[in-house]
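User: Structure please.
Assistant: Input sequence and predicted structure:
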Amino acid sequence: MNVLKPREPMPHLTLDTLDGPWTLQEQTPDNFTMMVFYRGLHCPICKTYLKELHRLSADFAERGVNLLAGSSDTQERAQRARDEWELEGLPLAYGLSIDNARALGLHRSAGRGLTSIGIEEPAEFSEPGLFICKPDHTLYFAAISTMPFARPHFREILASMDFALKNNYPARGELS
């Protein structure tokens, strides 16, 4: 598994979204691009998490942050998540490949049948990860999990961005 280092270039990443192709290296945010990778339609925690991201999307936009949420789900499952979770307007990527998941350092899991909400897990899927990149496409912050639990809170991320921007705070964790 790849370990991304802050201040280093992110891997080249082109994803299909429900709104068309999206490429990280073509993003031109004022301050950051934030990519939130979720487990998929089958995950009730992902639903709550992405609904919160969607609710705060204007707050991120005010701070010059481009957003993307994505998973290894199929296009049909991603569309169902957008519709059922009421995420209209949030860029939603689907079909995250194993190679892209590995390049990002995301953990992968095997499906284990129906979840608590009665939706079948895919045969395999990526576990959560959150990446914040600077406009030069270098990594600023990453949080990668092996489980659906204990993800970074978006309100805390917003407050952290405010602090970082006000104080020109550098990316940390760059040493091997």
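Helices lie at 44-55, 57-62, 75-84, 98-104, 154-167.
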